[in-house]
From TrEMBL:
Domain of life: Eukaryota
Reactions performed catalytically: 3-demethylubiquinone-10 + NADPH + 2 H(+) = 3-demethylubiquinol-10 + NADP(+); a 3-demethylubiquinone + NADPH + 2 H(+) = a 3-demethylubiquinol + NADP(+); a 3-demethylubiquinone + NADH + 2 H(+) = a 3-demethylubiquinol + NAD(+); 3-demethylubiquinone-10 + NADH + 2 H(+) = 3-demethylubiquinol-10 + NAD(+)
UniProt cross-references to CDD domains, sorted A to Z: RTN4I1
InterPro entries xref list: ADH-like_N (IPR013154), ER (IPR020843), GroES-like_sf (IPR011032), NAD(P)-bd_dom_sf (IPR036291), RTN4IP1 (IPR037397), YIM1/Zinc_Alcohol_DH_Fams (IPR050700)
Stored Pfam families: ADH_N, ADH_zinc_N_2
UniProt entry tagged with the keyword Transit peptide: yes
Source organism of this protein record: Gasterosteus aculeatus aculeatus
Official protein name in the record: NAD(P)H oxidoreductase RTN4IP1, mitochondrial
Sequence ranges of Basic and acidic residues compositional bias: 437-453
BP terms from Gene Ontology: nervous system development; ubiquinone biosynthetic process
Length: 467
């Protein structure tokens, strides 16, 4: 009788194992395997409750940045969120402005409308708009990344920033980090890349089909977004535009650098303005024509050139008075400024009055330009876009976009990093190493691979010319 029971138990166990194996295969085919891996992965929030971070608990200039080891570790709060362990973060002039309270009223409304109505505080506030790191936990609906993936992203200004050990973002805001870049290098690109792409594509109305024979001018081009834009000129990926004028702004000193690299990879013919001591950097990133804006005849030189199709203004102020005259009249040319009065006016006038006044300002300028010369006047804004960063990542790994890191600081020296950005005259990004790993070795390997990619591309161009 015992042997009969044993045989029956064996058959039952075999049947159960077969059904379990079949069920596992079915789950894997339907995408549940990634979910199972995520659930099996221990979230940092389950292991520890606090993390290190640099925060502000009030708005101001000097002395408001504080280091703490008691910042709560963020958790995956929705099915589409991703928890990232920060390896490197970088600073933008927007971080300096936000430290002083810039945009506080509108950004607080975007963070949590109900808390604003109840008078709740946004502090402690973590700054830092760029992140490169590693995924450690995901929501159940996330399919684009899994724990262990190396990613980069631009952190929206209304979210807690990247000057901390961990940060949470939505899957749509996250992209896989370029393989050829270290975390330090990768952290120099996302925010300015998303800003440049949003301005050029969304506000500038540029697309693959309308790109040929467009003209591009970039002013203040030694900052980050400008270098990015120039380098995209030679890419076959998106031949978006041939000439755009881009100027320095509160959002990022690196915006002109990034714009310039982007346009370079897209195959644009790029003219830029910069100071004489930045000319070598600008030409090295692919500018076709360079105008020294410190020279007395710089405006005359620009006026002698062929008119432009799009202007991307990253300076604001008096720039509009002379730059709009460089656009082609009555041809659908666009003037896109990244320096809108929206946040300043909501700060000074309140949410409703400020938004109304900003809207009237945009309407009046748009009507004035379209009536007088047929030019479209638009505002450009940063927009989070992980899929766009996926395309940028491909350009980086193809050697068509290079990181431009001017200064690096360890996580213990974040105040010094802020001071570096506040001093201005940047020739690239200021990056904070949150995790001190073997980034130097990775940077050396990345430079070697990018050099090989550039040599290969040069050989292809020479062969095409010979044929």
């Amino acid at each position: 009788m015992g042997s009969v029971r044993a045989m029956a138990s064996t058959r039952l166990l075999s049947s159960f194992n077969a059904k379990a194996a079949h069920a596992t295969k079915t789950l894997a085919r339907s995408g549940w395997s990634a979910s199972l891996r995520r659930n099996a992965c221990s979230s940092p929030s389950a292991l520890r409750s606090c993390m290190s971070a640099w925060v502000i608990d009030q708005y101001g200039t000097d002395g408001v940045l504080k280091y703490t080891e008691e910042m709560p570790v963020p958790s995956v709060g929705s099915t589409s969120e991703v928890l990232i362990r920060v390896h490197a973060a970088s600073l933008n002039p927007l971080d300096i402005s936000m430290k002083g309270g810039y945009g506080a009223k509108l950004l607080n409304l975007r963070r949590d409308p109900m808390s604003v109505m109840a008078g709740a505080s946004e502090f402690p506030l973590v700054l830092g708009r760029d992140v490169s790191g590693e995924v450690v936990d995901c929501g159940s609906d996330v399919t684009h990344v899994v724990p262990g993936d190396e990613v980069w992203a631009a952190v929206p200004p209304w979210k807690q920033g990247s000057l901390a050990e961990f940060v949470t973002l939505t899957e749509y805001e996250v992209s896989h980090k370029p393989k050829l870049l270290s975390h330090t290098e990768a952290a120099s690109i996302p925010y300015v890349a998303n800003t440049a792409l949003s301005a050029l594509v969304n506000a500038g109305g540029l697309c693959r089909d309308s790109a040929s024979n467009k003209r591009v001018l970039i002013t203040g081009a030694s900052g980050g977004v400008g270098t990015f834009s120039i380098q995209v000129r030679q890419s076959a990926f998106l031949q978006l535009c041939r000439r755009v004028c881009c100027c320095d702004c509160v959002y990022s000193c690196c915006l002109p650098l990034v714009c310039r690299q982007l346009l370079k990879a897209w195959g644009a013919h790029v003219t830029v303005t910069c100071s004489q001591n930045a000319e070598g950097l600008v030409r090295g990133l692919g500018a076709d024509e360079v105008v020294d804006y410190t020279a007395g005849d710089s405006l005359e030189l620009l006026e002698m050139m062929e008119k432009f199709d799009v202007i991307l203004d990253n300076v604001g102020g008096e720039t509009e008075e002379w730059a709009t005259g460089l656009l082609k009249p009555w041809s659908g040319a666009k003037y896109v400024t990244l320096v809108s009065p929206l946040l300043l006016q909501t700060d000074s006038m309140g949410l409703l009055d400020g938004m109304l006044q900003a809207g009237l300002s945009l309407h009046n300028k748009a009507m004035q330009n379209i009536i007088s010369c047929g030019v479209f006047y638009r505002w450009g804004f940063y927009a989070p876009d992980g899929p766009a960063l996926d395309e940028v990542s491909k350009l980086v790994d193809a050697g068509k976009i290079l990181p431009v890191v001017e200064a690096q600081f360890p996580f213990t020296q974040v105040p010094q990093a802020f001071q570096k950005v506040e001093n201005g005259h940047a020739r690239g990004k200021t990056v904070v190493r949150v995790v001190e790993d073997d980034d130097k070795r990775a940077e050396g390997l990345g430079r070697t691979r990018r050099s090989e990619a550039a040599d290969s591309e040069q050989e292809e161009r020479e062969m095409a010319t010979q044929n």
